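RETRY 2/3 - previous attempt timed out on the joint model. Re-submitting the same 524-residue input unchanged.
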Amino acid sequence: MSSLKMLLRIALVVAASFARSAEPPASAGEPLARGTYLVTVAGCNDCHTPMKMTPEGPKPDMDRMLSGHPETLVMTAAPTLPPGPWLMTAAVTNTAFAGPWGVSFTANLTPDRETGLGKWTVRNFSETIRTGRHLGRGREILPPMPIPMYKNFTDADLAAIFTYLQSIPAVKNRVPDPRPPAAALASAGS
Amino acid sequence: MFRAVRHWILFALVGACAPAMARAADVPALPQHLRDTGLYAEGVLAFSPQYPLWSDGAVKHRWIYLPPGASIDATQPDAWDFPRGTKLWKEFRHGRALETRFIERTADGEWRFASYVWTADGADAVLAPAAGIREMPAPEAPGARYAIPAQDDCRACHEGAPVPVLGFSALQLSPDRDPLAPHAESSAAEANLRSLVDRGVLRNLSPELLANPPRIKAATPEGRAALGYLHGNCGHCHNDEGPLAVLGMTLAQRVGSQEPAADAVLRSVVDVQSQFRGAGGGARVAPGHPASSVVALRMRSREPTQQMPPLGSTVVDAEAMALIARWIESLPNP
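RETRY 2/3 succeeded.
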């Protein structure tokens, strides 16, 4: 092989690597399809769709898909765990979680304008995931939301997820605000 | 022939890399030491906003630098356009200087944010990690602890407004200063609208704003101070132009609006049901009832899921809470 051909080959390989790095990684397909796929495999339904008991065990109630903790399920005070390695308790729906951070409730991700993400912009959504703060600048998003992993989504993937979430049926469901830890409540009342 | 092709290939490769190389060449890394940011250079101006942000009682000093011959374009009265090369600093003191925050508009037109931490002997201030410092000893700060914000925390507040410079604006630098504004420092020798125009560093400011300096039009002097406090402490996020416009709640005062800005604020909070249902709250502001007004409830909380502002403070501003309570009590109950 001549040195010219060798140089051309090297140049083409380098140029191809630049071309690849300019594209969002592995984001084949249209945003809606990509978002559908990502929401499915990233486990969003595990916590944001209430579980219901079936003869085969708990399954997501897809009539309430991604609508968060049901407002009709009023949670009593979380049980106090005995000393030991247990950390967290969960609601029967897997939509409310009690731990050292207090009680967190999964959000309504449907496009309902009053109780879901219907008024949100893609910037609101991306900044929430990226910063781990509500709307990118409010309170911190609480456990067990896997922000430390999800903040690594590409901008294109976050936009695709948002596109999908805006396309699903709106469910009116006002999720409660998080509850402070019992110790904080006790000191506030004292 | 071979040489020409080789040169063409090299040229093409350099072209492919050019954007990254240009950015690296135009925007040097942040200096490791505060003294190298230009704070002590000729032409740095001190200023004080009339409605300062509460920072747990820290004493603060602020400065701005504009490149020689450059000026701020005030064509948009609520979104001044700062020239590239603009730098701002804010020093925080509890007894001694603890931290100096730094904002810069770089050559590529972007804004960057950093913080410098002072050594205990005051001899040097060193660039803080981008993730901030969650807690450092500070004997004279509340709780003897002090937190350095992460650069993302800087962006959370500063990028919620039309312009990331928050305390250097027409209302904040108005010569018609509010005598009831909590924690305001004197500005007699510092920059204000008039002095900036006279120096030629502020251009295209509406003559109307010079003739009648911005002033919040409220029903009472306490109302003016309360609305000013909400502007200075909350309005950078809670406004109708930034990403939180989706909440439909504005606490920012706009000097360029035809309608008195105070009216827009009142319309968005008074007797408007809050989305926040915790802590027994109802309306954002319930006239006559500060105890059930969510704005006041959340300002009075330092529980992390409830407190407002959500970051940058661990101590409630008692003086401001008294002012806000008196203002809410004074609002007419429809």
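Confidence is low (pLDDT under 50) at residues 1-23 of chain B. Closing ticket.
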